[in-house]
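Q&A log
Question type: sequence-to-structure
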Amino acid sequence: MSQQIADRENSLRTRPEPQHFSREGGAEFNPAGLLRNRGFWIAALCVLAVILYVWISGIRARAAAARAAATAAHQTVPVAATSTKQGDLNLYVTAIGTVTAFNTVTVKTRVDGQIVQIPFKEGQMVHAGDLLVQIDPRPYQVQLTEAEGQMARDKANLVNAQTLLTRDKELFAQNIIAKQDLDNQAAQVGTYEGTVKNDQGLIDAAQLNLTYSRITAPISGRIGLRLVDIGNIVHATDTTGLVVITQLQPIAVDFSIPEDELPRVMNAMKHVASVTGGATIPVSTQQQTSGMAPPPLGLPVEAFDRDFKTKLAVGVLLTTDNEIDQSTGTIKLKAQFPNEDNALFPNQFVNVRLLVDVQHDAILIPTAAIQRSSTGSYIYVVMANQTVQMRPIKVLNTQGELSSIESGAQPGELVVVDGVDKLRSGSRVSVQLAANPITPGATQ
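Response status: OK
Response body:
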């Protein structure tokens, strides 16, 4: 068996190798090389197909973009636009303020007694000196009568003592009476003089109590709800008052601004002081009765409602606090308002706008017209052929609905303020004029 296996292996070793012939008669034919060349060409064709596909896709995308641009160019987009103007732009510092009264008085009685009259009505305006409460004056009238009677008696005694002193002086000059008697009579005159002066004090006290029984308004202002009724017994030691009066004209507004804004405010105050020279604004007769000096001409301050839409009053800045609050990084300011129409009420919250600077002869555009992108700010300007042109701009200052720009538009040009979403440079538009936040005088 082993011999058969050995013979089989020898026969396999001596078998001749197969010959490779080509079809053309004798040339060598290699199937493995042919397979390698075919794979290369297949890969090349695939790459070429991908390149061709990308190229065709790019052509189609550019064609679609061109068609879209052509469609947009011929499509009319409705927009709202307004014109730019040249003028002054007021720059403000805004804050939230609280209306505070310059004077608030709780009226109390200085004498004891029963209330017999309350002539005022709750909520009415009163002036300094108006009668508020009348306390029964009869006890104090009686005290005054008694004091006046005692005064009359003591005056009569004084006159008599003075007469006796005159006579004793004559008698002493004639050596009829002793010097001791003359001195005693002079002392008697001095005693009666002191008594008469004390009686005058009692009269004055009784008259003062009688005056205090008529309780009058110490300041001009608005009466609150009364705290007593007719017939109540009141005392000078009572802790509860009779009524509260709050001064409304003029009135103050306290507000705080960030400490970073303080240099602008101080520079503006110095400028106003140098221009006005410490002049004061005129005040009404009612304001003069408050006893306050008229405020100097200062920085204008405007008070608005909570929505910052309705202007309530216009006043001037009075002063700043003497230190910055380190916990909040703010400083308090106080402004004064005439409040002749009583639009401001104590403890009312208002929005305050303080004028600190004015940018003169600026190109003004509505803030709504400004668009922003990663490359900067721009606007759409309506051209004469009813198309829009996108222009880059540089914004200098923004104040509410208005902004000033350094370049990008000229006064009188129309800028789009609404409908910019579908616009691109060259788009055709139908323009509707929008409300212009710029006043006819172009001064804001």
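Response note: The chain has three domains: 72-89+360-433, 92-102+246-358, 108-244.
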